[in-house]
Amino acid sequence: MTEFDVEVVFEVALKAVKDAGEIIKEAFYKKKSVLTKSCDVDLVTETDQAVEKMLIGRIKENFPSHMFIGEESVAVGEKCDLTNDPTWIVDPVDGTMNFVHSFPHSCIALAVLYHKDVHIGIIYNPILEQMYTAKCNQGAFLNDKPIRVSEETDLSKSLVIAEFGTNRDTQKMESVLKNVSALMNKVHGLRAMGSAALNMASVAAGGADSYFEFGIHVWDIAAGALIIKEAGGVCLDTEGGPLDLMSRRMICASSEKLALQIIPLLDQLKLERD
User: Fold this and answer.
1) What residues have CB less than 8 Å from 206, skipping those under 6 apart?
2) pLDDT along the chain (274 residues), means of 10
3) In this structure, are residues 162 and 180 in contact, taking their beta carbons and an 8 Å threshold?
4) CA distance 48 to 36
5) DSSP one-letter code for 40
6) How distant, in Å, are the alpha carbons of 107, 129, 138, 146 from that of 135?
7) pTM listed for this prediction
């Protein structure tokens, strides 16, 4: 494939995400069939699998030469291989724990990359009808209305999101608690929504000022990284360098100045790459 038409790909992606949202809506208040992956709190449901299957089918139907990285496909052994080819990166239900409990903060997160750069980002919470979208260099939107980060630069006035994650490894949990303790008396407030993509969308829309996490995956953050950038925010590595989507660690913020105040306070974890 020698040409990548962002507008054509975006229209297909948006329609696919809306249709996938109907699958989530239908299942949301019903009894779920739940399985575990890496541990008792790392969950997958039949809805995660159904959404990913539908999206893969839609991609192959419209763009047979495009590549695909999906959370549930990787969970059953497929490679997480990011090349220069057009690549769709999908988390079919980000916030599965929330979904299982019918807590209305879960979403579909979809990004389309070309030459390893994110050109399209979509995050859709179908229960609350929140559709966050971005195309490279065209701004960020919530339900078709432009959004901007808060531009907050004062840590003491910042609402910061810090997640617990789905790993109960002792070292990971100790690190999480260290970070919460380090920030608790320095920020305006701490929150945990249970969905990496929705956390990033909240920063993009100005509802939160920063969010960081260790142990996330490329499918959790790829869409949000573009939406935040297009909303005027920043996404960085947790040590302050450029964001590496495959590194499994990230901090995003309304401003670089704010991010650089948080970074020195963090207990740094180096994790196996995606």
Assistant:
1) 147, 148, 149, 150, 231, 254
2) 82 97 92 71 79 94 94 77 94 93 96 97 98 98 98 96 82 91 97 97 98 95 98 97 96 98 94 88
3) yes
4) 12
5) T
6) 19, 20, 5, 12
7) 0.94
- Burial of residue 18 (CB within 10 Å: 0-12, 13-18, 19+) is middle
Residues facing residue 186 across a β-bridge: none
Q: How many residues does the chain have?
A: 274
CB 261 within 8 Å of CB 155: yes
- The DSSP annotation for 102-156 comes to T-S--EEEEEEEETTEEEEEEEEETTTTEEEEEETTS-EEETTEE--------GG
Hey, how many other C-beta atoms are within 10 angstroms of the C-beta on 219?
Answer: 28
Distances (CA, A) of 134 to 10, 32, 90, 193, 268: 9, 32, 15, 22, 30
